Amino acid sequence: MSPRSAFDKALKELQQDILRMASLVEQAVYESVQSLVKLDVAGAAQVIMGDEMIDELYLEIEDKCVKLVATQQPIARDLRIVITGIKILLSLERMADHAVDIARATMCLSGHPLTVKPLEYIPEMARLTQRMIKDGLDAYVHNDVEKAREMCALDDDVDYLFARAFRELINCMTEDPKVVMQSAYLLYVSRYLERIADHATNIGEAVIYLVTGERKELN
Amino acid sequence: MFRGRALGGLFLNNIKILVKDLNLFYKDFQALKDVNLEIQANKITALIGPSGCGKSTFLRTLNRMNDLFEGVRVEGTVQLDGRDIYSPDVDVVSLRKRVGMVFQKPNPFPMSVYDNVAYGPRVHGIRSKRQLDEIVELSLRSAVLWDEVKDRLFKSALGLSGGQQQRLCIARLLAVEPEVVLMDEPSSALDPISTLKIEELIQVLKQEYTIVIVTHNMQQAARVSDITAYFLNGELVEWGTTEEVFTRPKDQRTEDYITGRFG
Fold first, then answer.
1. Residue (of B116, B60, B124) closest to B97 by Cα position
2. Which of A63, B121, B192, B241 has its CB 3.0 to 4.6 Å from that of B8, i.e. a possible disulfide?
3. Is the ipTM, as predicted for this complex, more than 0.95?
4. Structure confidence at residue A163 (pLDDT)
């Protein structure tokens, strides 16, 4: 038996806890985008209500990290596991908050059919963003630095789409005052997706730190 | 000779002790194997490693304390300010004045606090009472002990607490104005508060002295030292800035040891 088997077990549990929370967050982001595309108020409401559970989980797991620091004095790789855990938790929690933001926008948009054209950028941004979350978590599970880097590179594509969506939505608003309201909400949504992609990039950076001990800013 | 180089952000160019290809044998047993280490002036170097790894033996090579043991053979060089301390013309007594040592258990002499501190200067020929008074006060102040003992200078040192005794031993050492202070687990016999006092003291001392400390307490090494060297089976496995060693050690054996997964 390793002299620190209880600690090793706790570190393993921490990773599993994070993945449990991550799957809820992935789901929330997915549902928020689906409910927007379908203007599904019930689906949006579910995302909003589900956030409470994610917040609780966040606090619970962060608490475990604090306890590990206080009682086990982790250093070297152990320390990086705990610090990375805290960073990833924070990113996940923020992503979930943005899923709620998107769900709220859906509720505001409901009842009126969407008429603006740039909506096509949003599903593409959503697709890329969700892929980044998934790849980021895969990289975390497998300590895969290469995958983390590749995933972070996708953030440029998301930023590009955001810039396009922004310009076109502004054009729509300028041309037709009737679509100002929905364009504004869609502008918000594209911004939320862009932020979610940034948080995914943070996860990638955390994975690189976890494995190599190097701190890199990748967005 | 300029040997400056950046080591994990800590710019090092002021070598106080240079150890080159050091081997040490206790009769047939090789206790140190090809150790190469630069000990930086005015920095705290921590030596860590499991029991029997050679760290205390290594510490004792720095002021030739191993000479006191029978059957010890040393190969390689240890240079203090560029001069080999093992060369035949070196006076070991004056070497040990320059490179002093504090031990695991406080070992005050069975005499008064004052006489403990004045002992070294007297041996080195200082007789003037005024001068001795000055040295005693200054040394006790440097060891952050003065305020606790100034009213009982002429009472036995054995009546002090363990932590006070250890600081007295440090004051006794400082009284002979060393350049390097070697500490062999200086707080392992002390309670947590006394330990922290010693650690604080070490931080103050590094302004004027070069410090090498052997410790079994990993958190202590992380807290107090600038540079950490990890020994295993007589080998120096890795050394670097403490920050580096404790956040991203290069060698898996170092990682296993500091994270408690050794053995």
1. B124
2. B241
3. no
4. 95
